[in-house]
């Protein structure tokens, strides 16, 4: 089964991995390098001050990295994740895993054994930023995976922020039952598992991960809690969350590019720590760093595509834009069949994800990866009084810095041509395609750069 190490081998073979042997400090310096290379290669830091454990970052700062890690083409990423949502594969449970090789007690000081970084200037301390928290529905046993920010508070103690999704819902169920929630945190996973953990789905994400890999994901039982963890993890933390216990956590630099404030949040009391021999620690730089944005975007785009396709079968692709923090702004291309499908796409997007507040819908001849092309569609294919959708007082997400009383005004732009638009409206100015292809083929001779 593919794991992080196989993914790194594939990235290296593709020229997308940079090894850094210069000694760097875990406080800010690792993050600074990843900011400098924010759209560049995956980085493996092999010499972190005071530690033998290497650190990897920029694992998913571009969508192409997932394609490389899965050994598929870049255009296959979104279809693969969409297919996985509709064709999940149940995992297998085994008795052994490499992460069981080195075992520590729960009260170990994590900063003694792991190069947990301080990432952003105003962060409250050292944060595990790429840990996948795994827990279970106390009624059905369904697993949930989610990347959660986790502040190291002291030996055996971690403050954790649970977003208002399934993990928090499970904790509320435990609160009602008067029970504690058992959890495991997997660090150092294949990027396919990271993407699966970000899906907004009622399904068990380990099943959807099987769909992404097109084979069952092997899981191993944790040592001290009733939770199963992917065998390919590098590091596994086990513990319990008492719903009645909360401590201050934060500030932490979040995806809108602002700091989430200090607030009372749940606490994980660790019961065990296990690692591979010389594990690889993974970090994700917080804030508007592309990895923080793209890791979640790949999953959200697939879920949004699925939702739109249920009402607009002609949807072609969904993109959450980096400028919109890969959460707030969506661009959708459709092959429009009937009047009103542009508007239907807009309202479906708003209903599917509360973070989305601006949607642009374009025809399928527009390149979503080219913002100039998208802007051109808005400029030449919209009439403001007919093609704007403005919805005030819509539910927002609490992390939206412009949210007031958890509401926001959402705006959509239908930049699609009318169904009965003349063929001339779709014609682009330029030379014949066969001439451009010939010139491209002869470009070396023409420019003298053979």
TrEMBL record:
Residues 96-288 form the 3-octaprenyl-4-hydroxybenzoate carboxy-lyase-like Rift-related domain. The keyword Manganese does not apply. The keyword Lyase applies. GO terms for cellular component: cytoplasm. It is an enzyme of class 4 (lyase). It comes from the Bacteria. One of its GO terms (molecular function) is carboxy-lyase activity. Residues 295-415 form the 3-octaprenyl-4-hydroxybenzoate carboxy-lyase-like C-terminal domain. Residues 8-83 form the 3-octaprenyl-4-hydroxybenzoate carboxy-lyase-like N-terminal domain. Keywords: Lyase. Its EC number is 4.1.1.-. Belongs to the UbiD family. PANTHER family: 3-OCTAPRENYL-4-HYDROXYBENZOATE CARBOXY-LYASE-RELATED (PTHR30108), 4-HYDROXYBENZOATE DECARBOXYLASE (PTHR30108:SF21). This is UbiD family decarboxylase. It comes from Thermocrispum agreste. The lineage of its organism: Bacteria, Bacillati, Actinomycetota, Actinomycetes, Pseudonocardiales.
């Amino acid at each position: 089964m593919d794991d992080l190490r196989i993914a790194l081998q594939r990235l290296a073979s593709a020229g997308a991995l940079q090894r850094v042997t210069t000694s760097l400090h875990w406080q800010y310096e690792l993050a600074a390098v990843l900011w400098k290379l924010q759209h560049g290669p995956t980085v493996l830091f092999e010499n972190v001050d005071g530690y033998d454990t290497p650190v990897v970052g920029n694992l998913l700062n571009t969508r192409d990295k997932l394609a490389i890690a899965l050994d598929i083409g870049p255009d296959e990423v979104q279809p693969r994740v969409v297919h996985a949502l509709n064709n999940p594969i149940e995992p297998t449970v085994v008795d052994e895993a490499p992460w069981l090789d080195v075992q520590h007690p729960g009260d170990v000081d994590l900063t003694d054994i792991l190069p947990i970084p301080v990432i952003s200037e105003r962060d409250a301390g050292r944060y595990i930023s790429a840990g996948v928290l795994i827990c279970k529905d106390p009624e059905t046993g369904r697993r949930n995976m989610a990347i959660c920010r986790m502040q190291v508070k002291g030996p055996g103690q971690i403050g954790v922020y649970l977003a208002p999704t399934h993990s928090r819902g499970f904790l509320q169920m435990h609160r009602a039952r008067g029970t504690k929630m058992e959890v495991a945190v997997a660090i150092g996973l294949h990027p396919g598992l990271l993407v699966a953990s970000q899906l907004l789905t009622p399904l068990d994400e380990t099943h959807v991960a099987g769909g992404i890999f097109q084979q069952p994901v092997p899981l191993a039982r944790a040592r001290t809690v009733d939770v199963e963890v992917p065998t390919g993890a590098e590091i596994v933390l086990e513990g319990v969350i008492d719903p009645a216990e909360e401590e201050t956590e934060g500030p932490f630099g979040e995806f809108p590019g602002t700091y989430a404030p200090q607030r009372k949040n749940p606490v994980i009391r660790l019961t065990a720590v296990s690692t591979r021999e010389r594990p690889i620690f993974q970090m994700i730089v917080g804030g508007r760093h592309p990895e923080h944005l793209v890791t979640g975007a790949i999953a959200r785009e697939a879920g949004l595509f699925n939702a739109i396709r249920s009402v607009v079968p002609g949807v072609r692709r969904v993109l959450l834009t980096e400028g919109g923090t890969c959460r707030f702004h969506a661009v959708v291309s459709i092959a429009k069949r009937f009047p009103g499908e542009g508007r239907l796409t807009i309202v479906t997007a708003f209903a599917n994800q509360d973070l989305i507040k601006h949607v642009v819908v374009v025809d399928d001849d527009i390149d979503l990866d080219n913002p100039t092309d998208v802007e051109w569609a808005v400029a030449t294919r919209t009439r403001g009084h007919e093609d704007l959708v403005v919805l005030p007082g819509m539910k927002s997400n609490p992390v939206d810095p412009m949210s007031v009383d958890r509401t926001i005004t959402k705006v959509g732009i239908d930049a699609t041509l009318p169904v009965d638009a003349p063929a001339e409206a779709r014609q682009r100015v330029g030379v014949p395609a066969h001439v451009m292809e010939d010139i491209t083929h002869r470009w070396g001779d023409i420019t003298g750069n053979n």
